[in-house]
Amino acid sequence: MAQVTAGPPLAAVSSAAQAPVPGPRRRLLTPGALAGIILAAVAVRVVFGPAISAASVQSATTVFVAIVVQALPFLVLGVAISGVIAAFVTPGMLARLVPRHRSIAVPAAGLAGALLPGCECGSVPVAGRLVERGCDPAAALTFLLSAPAINPVVLVATAVAFPGRPEVVLARFLASLATSVIVGLIWGATGLPTPLQRRGHDHAGASRWEVLTGAVRHDFLHAGGFLVLGGAGAAVLQTVIPRSALASLGQSELLAVATMAVLAVALAMCSEADAFVASSLTTFPITARLVFLVVGPAVDVKLIALQAGTFGGRFAARFAPLTFVVAVCCALLVGWWLL
Amino acid sequence: MTEAAGSWIAVLVGFTVLRLSFTDLYLRYVRSGMRPWLVLAGVVLVAVGAVGLFARRRHGREVDTPIEVEGEPGRHGLPAIAALLLAPVVAVLVVAPAPLGAYAAGRQGPASSTGRKPPANLAAPKDGAVNLSLAELEDRINVGQDLSAVRVRLVGFVSSGPAVEDGFVMTRFQVSCCAADARAVSVAARGSYGELPARDSWVEVVGRASPPTGVQPIVDVESMKRIRPPRDPYE
């Protein structure tokens, strides 16, 4: 049972959501309170109806709902795998499965990422559960980064978006794999903590089925709240930054790379769709667009929120910038070499 | 947060996803291919929520008290942030935000070429015109095809934008994954279309595309009619 030290309080957002101070025993949300919240929302809609339908708010809400709805099946897949690990995989089994040496385990975890087809939302709970079961955090985090970036669905989507340019697919694969492995090795070498935000413990006398569904429910509620937070942030940023303002930024190489890197974080696009957006941003040089494809699945507002939820705000504050820098460097090097 | 509240949230989110996928509402946000996965996710969420509620009944009321976090008195097993999941539930069930329209199209600016190669052959004409998606028309114009000999039928909504003289711009969004990655495909329309419907109303246009000139395809309209919004608002 390594690495289950209770983490620091989550980021400011969540502590705000968790209300003032821990009293002895509080019930934040009873079914009655839930009903109250929904009634309040209906009242807001009735009173402020005309204002809510203002085009910008409505457009942002559409994007917000779209991001959440698109991510939900992948999140459910991720928490289902995480629940199966919780119910059926013992730390002993994992120890036998994962190579002992970090220099082998981390690249192996990077390649294993190709096995989980989906967006980035699914890989975070899986990685969290692997750490809880005693997996080396360096390997688990490498898996977290590689799974959304190099799985077959994403690579095929990239090939479709860049017809006749297989080198873009190869460059994306290599740069993303390198990013995940390098970040994993650096994280392992620094020995920085990977604290799990503690989940509720299993009830005594619960059947294996109840453990499984309980783990799925906990992981879903945990990650889902942060997904909503990240999705809302991305929707607001998408609405605030019009794409029409970007066209002029593609002229100088340095500015283009910086813009695409920041854009990848801000837009929080699903890794299966980002290639289509990258291919349509033709004013940007191809290396800058590769940066977009490599940074997006590794660091974006939605992912940062999910990571903060799973491993704590302090972890995310170190891990996200590290990943960002490594991803930009890997994409630039591979881009200059291959494209 | 209590176990019971968490279970209710899971049930609510699952119910919302199922409602979306059984009413075509989901097409406002994601592609039609997502439907089976949405149904599966909805069923799983309702199931794990229901199991939580029944387990609570079976094990008695004691499970209903907030779970204390090990070593951290006062912190509960379920973070209160999970309550944020009610935001999309409310957004869908109460507001059901409309598909992206003219406002979002105006924010995107002039479309840029995708570099895609259009299919080799046009579809067979139906009722005297070839049904063409705006994206396919754009692709063909971009690779320099002259379609002026072919009568085409296009569907889109009226959007503002850089209008040609005496014309309007019709747009349809192309979505590859979800509405967050939508790309506006716009065509300038001119000619005899009668009275211009309001922004965001859907129209079906029959006409001929002018030979490729610049960025945006131009269509000389022969007839236009207002239509109901298509089942899938995106291409």
Report the total helices of chain A: 15
- How many beta-strand segments of chain B? 8
Kindly name the structural category of chain A. mainly alpha
Strand order of the largest sheet of chain B: 4-5-6-8-7
Shape of chain B: elongated
Instruction: Give the fraction of residues assigned to helices of chain A.
Output: over 70%
The gyration radius over C-alpha positions of chain B equals 24 Å
Quaternary form: heterodimer
C-alpha geometry of chain A: globular
Q: Biggest sheet of chain B, open or closed, and with what strands and sense?
A: 5 strands, mixed, barrel
Order of SSEs of chain A, N→C?
HHHHHHHHHHHHHHH
Number of strands of chain A: 0
Query: What Rg of chain A do the Cα atoms give?
Result: 21 Å
Sheet of most strands of chain A: none
Helix content estimate of chain B: 25-40%
Average predicted confidence as pLDDT of chain B = 83
Word description of this protein:
The complex is a heterodimer of chains A (339) and B (235). With 339 residues, chain A is mainly α. Helices cover 72% and strands 0% of the residues of chain A. Chain A contains 15 helices and no strands. In chain A, α12 runs antiparallel to α13 (286-295). Residues 1-28 of chain A have low confidence and may be disordered. Chain B has 235 residues and is α+β, with helices and mostly antiparallel strands. In chain B, 30% of the residues lie in helices and 22% in strands. Chain B has five helices and eight strands, in the order ααββααβαβββββ. Chain B has helices at residues 3-21, 35-59, 86-95, 102-108, 134-142; strands at 68-69, 72-76, 130-131, 151-159, 167-174, 183-191, 202-209, 218-226. In chain B, strands 4-5-6-8-7 form a five-stranded mixed barrel. In chain B, β5 and β6 (183-191) form a beta hairpin. In chain B, α1 runs parallel beside α3 (86-95). Chain B is elongated and about 75 Å long. Chain B starts with a helix and ends in a 9-residue tail after the last strand. The model of chain B is unreliable at 61-76 (pLDDT under 50). Chains A and B meet through α1, α2, α3, α10 and α12 of A and α1, α2, β2, α3 and α4 of B.
